[in-house]
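Troubleshooting log. The previous run stalled partway through. Resubmitting the same two chains, unchanged.
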Amino acid sequence: MRQIFLGLALATAAVSPALAEGAEKKGLPQLRFEDFPPQIFWLVISFVVLLVLLSTLVLPKLQGTIEGRKAKLEGDLATAVSLKDEAAAAIAAYEKALAAARQRANAIAAEAKAQIEAAAAARKAELEAKLAEEAKAAEVRINATKAAALAEVRSIALEAARAIATKVAGIEVDDASAASAVDAALGRNG
Amino acid sequence: MAAGGEAHSPLEQFEITRLVDLNLGGVDISFTNSALWMVIIVALSTLFFVIATSRAAIVPGRLQSIAELSYEFVAGLLRDNAGKEGMKYFPFVFTIFIFVLMANMLGMVPYSFTVTSHLAVTATMSLIIILGITVLGLVKHGFGFFHVFLPSGVPMWLAPLLIVIEVISYLTRPVSLAVRLFANMMAGHTTLKVFAGFVVALGVAGVVPLLFVVALTALEVLIAFLQAYIFTILTCIYLHDAFHPHH
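Second attempt completed without errors. Output:
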């Protein structure tokens, strides 16, 4: 409604100067009714021709282009969305694979560590056993040497005692009494 | 618009001259200067759109952009004002817009003739539009179309007054539609011609009206577009009534 009033106001404002001008001569050319029929005839002809030309040659093509572009844009957007989804899926798969690989690597590392530790423990135990055995053997040897040494000390002491007794006292001591005296002395000191 | 050598009346530019005298069953259908410019309008519009849409590229060039812009402009007008049902009449509305726009714009060319500055042309167009819309409304809604004259929910005692007002308003439509376009075109061109006459008459001081004419020409180009737009949008709005007679 507002537009109609505006239009009317515009029209009246526009007409008034024009009417004032047109008062001279033989009136407004626009109001010469004998000129109406040819104008109306050619208006109808040219309008219909333009309508037919535009709606056959131009409008279907324009509509096709615009709708084709719209369809292409929508198709491209859909492709982009699906590509994005694909990329996201690929990333997820990659991360999953990465996590699995990491897990496997950890497992392998743990296994290797366990193996190495077991081997080390075995070797240590073996070594300890060997050392203990050697220590034992050494002890046995030491004890034997000690016993031998002690026996040797006894025989030397016996001989020394017999020699001293012969030299100092000039008496011959038989083996048995010398042995008992040495043993007694060794037992006392030993 | 042309500042001719002789002392022409500013209304001389609106004279209808018969180029070829023709007669069909007693009716004068002579090929006039008006008819010549109508043919030029049809030829130029068709040529422009055929060239502009010849390549139909996905990424449009300049001409194609203009063609698509005008298509979407009119389609938007029609969809917003007349609704989806109105899109069936898109070719008709589009042709109205292009015809009026071309007529107004070609009228800005010096020595040309403005087809739409004649009441015979604008009145014929508006009468065909309003009659067509009325017939369409009656076919679609039958007697229900007369709801246009009586909005629902109006108290009965107001009805006689309101119906009279609405009928007058409805009957004024073709008049306002026709007069608005023709008067705007005529007034603008007359004013231009009057001031252009001053340019010659005032000699050196004619620079002042010359500047005015330049500014006015720019304004007239704007009005040429605006009036084509108004003519089209009113067609769309009236078309809306044919589909939805209930206000």
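Takeaways: Chain B touches chain A through 70 residues (CB under 8 Å). The first strand of chain B starts at residue 18 and ends at 20.
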